[in-house]
Amino acid sequence: MNLWRVLTVFFGLLITAPTVILNANGHNIAFWVQEEPETVPTPQAITPPRDRPEVQAMFAADTLTQARYIKITEVLPPAGILKAGEAAPDDTLFALYAAARAPSRLISYCTEVIATIATTCDVIHTETRENQEGKLELTGQLAFAPSFDMGDPFKLADGEMVQASVTLPHEGDLLPANEAETRTAAMGYAAEMCENLRDIYGNCMVSMVSFEVNELWITDLEALPAGTNPQRLAVQASFTIFADPAELDEAKLAKRLEDLINPA
Amino acid sequence: MTEKEQQSNFAERLERIGTNQDSEKSAVADMVARHKDPSRFEEPPQEDVFVRNALIWLAITISAVIGGVYGIRALPQDFKDNIAWMTGNSEEPSDANSTALAIVETDKMSFLGPILASPDVASASGELFDLASITGNIALPTDDTQIGNTIPFDRNVSCTLRKPLATENLVNIRVENGLLPTPVQAFSAQALSDQLMQNITAVTQDGQAYDHDAQVNGNLTSIDVFLTDNTAPLYLALQNMGPGIIWNIHAAPDVTVAHVALISSHISGVTNIADTTTVDGVLVSDFVAPYAAGDDDQIRDCMIRPWRNPQPDWTGVQRAAAGDASISAQMHSYSTGYAAYNAWFTDTLGVDAATDVLTIRDAAHLLHGPQPTEPIAYKPLAGQDIHLMRTDHIITGDTNSRSDAVAQLHQQTLLAAVAGRIEDLNPGPIERENQ
Fold first, then answer.
1. Would you call A1 an interface residue with chain B, using a CB distance cutoff of 8 Å?
2. Quick check: pTM over 0.95?
3. Rounded to a whole number, what is the distance in Å from the CA of A170 to chain B's nearest CA?
4. What ipTM was assigned to the predicted interfaces of this complex?
């Protein structure tokens, strides 16, 4: 009788093993081949927010990090990348010229950034491409150190970073013109929203303001006053709060942002 | 009921009770007796099913073994390798893998075919010759050889070449690399732009310092081609997959080269040809995008990438035959690529791409035709004009001057692109003045 029981167990394993192999990936199979000794879960030590790199990167007061930036885009005809009076290079070189000149062109937007929400600003990433209309698109990320009061996220003993985005409002049907006034107003508005959030949650960071350039068609312009800037801006802002996840999540933050934009 | 009847009934009841007590005593006694009996735990006798059970287990065993064997065979190789690793058997490769690993490359035979450095001379028949038995007064080129002029010719803008005439003999040569150096570098403005774009992107997107050493060089190699077939004017179809090659033609005195057709993956050229020899050339990148796995699996128009058909002596082919699945896939790509190329070749030149082909991976010297009875005069690269596919930048001279010229070209183009200083690729931060 004992022999039959041993055989039953053995063949049971033999028959089920291929199923385990065929249905498990290498990680799943590892437990089967080399079972880890059972460990008693121990309470995880809480890392203070100040010692968490991702929190530091988002809320560092004086340093530039990739965690928060202004995303700026320039759209221009290929010849627009050349300096006044500069001879056009071979067609194969326009993309190279654009890539090489993008940092020095886009850092000029930092003057607007430090005029509104930052004490320091730098270009940390640029990309260039030719769009469907044959124009050059230069996109840059401008990292910044905030000049507004972000509160103190490090007061909390523990928490998570909660992030939500919102499209900033504009007046009228037409998107605002791609001009310095529009950009500075948008960044100022984002900083103001962030200060409102800080008052509620104790801290807030503008993690991104993105300026997307939309170009009006000629048919659109015909219906508009002469001299209307064909480049319009759609602005989106992201905000990050360090909070107790039991009290705040992305949906709640998004709702709060909508409420700030459209007060009841 | 009378008193007498009552007494009678009572007597009967006493008797019944007495009888019941006796039977209960008997039952208790039986129970006690059974309890004291050690054999009470024995199971009731069963039917003998040993044979039936044995047959069932035998069937299960056979099914499990057969299923296991075929199941494991059906598993992907990497999965089997993982299992081997987990069970600690990874250091003992399978028979197929151990056979494949036992096939090693040699100095003259590589994964992708023969490598024959100087002074070996490869021939279409497969026979190997020593350079000294083919030619005399040998003066091999170096990186610093002083050549004559470069004579650029326009590349063919269509993927068509003239067919060999019925009166011509086709010399069909297909290689990957030439093994002799040359003092020539050639590359397009697009190649220069691509290299600089890569360097700039590393700064503007990855935050690295600008790497001035990352340069496109366009170095050309060369191969000596000894021609001894004097039975008809020759049509040379010179094909290569790797960096550009300058084909140095050494024709025996009674040999006529009518036409040279270059089919090349990079800017290539030909030298030591007669004034009457016509030259044509197609550049792969003019018609075919840079290769990615599977790109050339289908026959299509203008598929001029000159794949070589895998041969049994390639170690790659042998390892594939020994069961190495990943190498087998690579060899399959070579075969399908060759099939696509052969379709274009056959359609364009009117003969199969395997016709009298002299194919080798890397070579320094090639012989087409019978072994010469007397050494053919070696025609050095030195002082010779070179017919070269036209491109934007052709740089010749000694090693140092070429290196300087290439570096200067990169620097000039980069500075023009930046329109200022290279430091402008990574401008410093801007700070608020009143901080």
1. no
2. no
3. 28
4. 0.79
